[in-house]
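Input structure tokens:
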């Protein structure tokens, strides 16, 4: 609550550069998350100097392959079933309303300097 509803600063610019726009990023991220079979995660990662969307099954994480995580979405059924039943796409749409873009931006800027 009270945070930025969208990415700001360098992260906003990087998302535009990598995905075309914030809306295009959200569409690609949501599409990746919906396609995960069973349990898993969708991630916005920093791979070297490049922003990418990646998915992992179960409890796996991009950290184990040396990538830096900026944002993660849990699509295990336990994350959404009580409120959204089997409507994963509705859960993902609602999830965007609670993303802490200020934290994601701070993390991005810190990792870009490293």
């Amino acid at each position: 609550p009270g945070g930025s509803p969208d990415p700001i600063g360098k992260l906003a610019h990087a998302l535009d550069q990598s995905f075309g726009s914030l809306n295009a990023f959200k569409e690609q991220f949501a599409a990746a998350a919906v396609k995960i079979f069973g349990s898993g995660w969708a991630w916005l990662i920093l791979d070297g100097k490049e922003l990418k969307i990646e998915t992992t099954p179960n409890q796996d994480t991009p950290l184990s392959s040396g990538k830096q995580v900026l944002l993660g979405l849990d699509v295990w059924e336990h994350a959404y079933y009580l409120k959204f039943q089997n409507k994963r796409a509705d859960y993902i749409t609602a999830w965007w309303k609670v993303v802490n873009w200020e934290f994601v931006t701070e993390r991005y800027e810190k990792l870009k300097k490293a």
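DSSP finds five helices and three strands in the chain. The beta strands are 40-47, 50-57, 68-74.
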